[in-house]
Structures are given as structure tokens and as C-alpha cells.
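Good morning C.,

I know you're traveling, so I'll keep this short. The sequence:
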Amino acid sequence: MSPHPKEHPERSDLVRGLGLWAATAVVIGDTIGSGIFLVSSDMARASGSATLVFAAWILGGLIVLFGAFCYAELGAAFPKAGGPYLYLNRGLGPLWGFLFGWMSSFLERPVAMAALAAGFLRFLGFLFPVVATPLFTGHVGRYAFTFTAAQPLAALVVLLLTAINYLSVQLSGAIQVLLTSLKVGAIVLIVVGGILLGTKHSQAAQLDIPSVSAPLAMGTIGVLLTALVPAMWAYNGFNDLGDLGEEILHPQKNIPRAIIMGLLTVGGLYLLANVVYFPILPFADFLRVN
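The C-alpha cells, ready to paste straight into the viewer:
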């Protein structure tokens, strides 16, 4: 037996083609979604205070950071495909790994991919309205549904991305870097635009903290925890990097680095976005139900 059990720590049955930047882009890209653009209003309605909204974002970031440390250690210790499936299988036993793998393969991942593709086509419909044009309607029991070009196009998007990931790890990594750069660029554009152009609306930007008796009756801690729920949803996604553990170069170093760097970047962008939201928009606008 070799005296160096980690002599071949990176032996892999898959292609290790994702470097540090691609892995970091996966963390950032999987975490940043529609949450930062939507949940601040939910948090404002729950708390009635911009200060508590900021506190919820910071507290949520700290909680997720602790989880990130755990995933960083697990990813470095078990740099194989599967992520949580592998961690549960090795840590708690094959039954728990099997149950998680079954749930992920047949429920979580298909539903998530379908929702993301549908969301992409929904936003695409704003640019190309023909995508959302109804083709025909139908009924299943009491439920009515409308079939548009968006449904088959969403399925095509899933198939196309699956093919790209299957055929080339390097290409999929480059696409992830590109898409993540666009996401980060959009938030940076909002922040820079708000800082440079938002000062002219300073009168309308004064924070109007309304009297919200029901939430405040819960006490500050209860209100903060209520506002924390949507913030945690916006931070979700950093843990997906472990699924690609067998495709990352130098995983013992790059997985922890990518998770921590990616999450710190996301947290910073979220706080900067909210720094711009509240001084520019009247607080009452955040309390309106979309």
C-alpha cells in the first residue's frame, strides 16, 4: 500500500476542464437569478424598514457563508461527480444518498430546469412578443392551459444546453463565464446608473418608513426573520458547484476558492444593489404588491 493515499487525488473518469474562473462563474451564475430584482420588495413589506432589509441581507449572507465553508470542505475532500449525493452516501449511508439522488434526478433538477427555461422564454417574450402568442387552449379537468411557442422553445433550450455540456466541458465553462458576466454586468449597470443618475431624484428618494403595525407587533427579531426568508432564497445556488467536482481542475484548491470568492461577490453585489434601490425609489413603492 502506498504511503501517500492522496498520490492521485485528481484521478477522474470525467474531463477536468473547468478552471478557477469557470468554477467561480458557476457559483455566481447559479446563485444570482431573479431574486435580487424581486425579493427586496417582499422584504420591505415584511419588515417595513429599509434598515431591517439591509440587516436581513447581511445576516443571510453570513448564514450562507457558514454553509459555504461546509460545502468547500466537502467539495475538496470528495471532488467527484454528484455533490450532495456523494456526501450523503459517504457520510450517512447508501440509502440517504439513493433517496437524494432519486429526488434530484426525477423531481428537483427537471422541475428547476423547466422553470428556468420557462422564465427565460417569458423574458424573451418581452423582446419578441410572437413567442408568447397563444396557439391554442385546452382544459384538463377544471384547469385551463394555453399552449404557445414558448413551451417547445423552452424544451429546445434545455436540450441545447444539455448537448453543449455533454459535448464540451471547456465550451460549457466559457458559456457560463459569459452568461455570468452578463448577470454581473446588469447589476453593476444598475448600481453605477443609480449612483450617477439617481441623485436628481433625491427628494423622492427619502426613506418613508410607514407604520406597519402587524409586522412590528411580532418584535424586531420576528420581523427580521420574516424578511430573511426571501433573502435566503436569493442566496440559494452556491452549493451546486459540488455536482461538478469531477470536472474541475485542481479541485482541492479551486472548489473552496470558487465557492468563497463567488459567494462574497454575490453578497457584495446584492448589498450594492440595495444601496441604490432604497435611496432612489420611494419606500412606499416597495410595499405595493406586484
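Safe travels,
E.
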